[in-house]
């Protein structure tokens, strides 16, 4: 058996639409190449499930609102449910193996002691959003070992593998709970930024083909233009208009790969006001013209 690649398909709210596992076994395993350049990586998204991963080759950068981790081979990460995140190449890029699971797989239901005592506190408002696993401490080494085992079980799918996955997830969560302290009340600034960012990214991904300016993006979160700029820089490290351009270019690349639309029309459909502006911006991000990109299908 083999693992799937993690191809992200999101709705206008950046919620991933792809189901992970099945309704009766909500856990999926993935093997994903993170390539360098704007065309590589995993775009900003979120899902109701928790994600665990480790790097098998090269280096990657994991982004959460107000967080950024560079992970090398052997290192990994834990990303909570409902948290915006993306993964890009660091340097030449790398490869990751991951598992995405719903916590009901280990809780057994909302009314169990496992949910109330050990899972809900870590998922609660203000709890940790994610955690890099560098292996510097033994408990992190143990978590990384469990992640590798979980992904291996999901890959092999041998008889009874569901029991093995659930057992490993239980040990992983117990380890996580023992070494992280839920924060009562949390950080209101980070929480507010994350909520505002979701609203503004929703607008951009819904209306990227329309004329959008800073004022319109800011209004999506009911904030002023200056606060909009600060919010983007605090959370994902780039400006709203930089994100808009990147998203337009990524959508243009998708149309170039999967349709036969004329290059000029692709640019127009993705919000560029002229063919020259489209070509110039595309070359900036991909180091190649749109026509050459289409021919190469890279």
From TrEMBL:
InterPro entries noted in UniProt: Cupin_2, Homeodomain-like_sf, HTH_AraC, HTH_AraC-typ_CS, RmlC-like_jellyroll, RmlC_Cupin_sf, Tscrpt_reg_AraC-type_HTH
Annotated Pfam families: Cupin_2 (PF07883), HTH_18 (PF12833)
Annotated ranges, domain HTH araC/xylS-type: 198-296
An MF annotation (GO) of this entry: sequence-specific DNA binding
Alphabetic keyword roster: DNA-binding, Transcription, Transcription regulation
Keyword Oxidoreductase assigned: no
UniProt protein name: AraC-like ligand binding domain-containing protein
Organism: Anaerotignum lactatifermentans DSM 14214
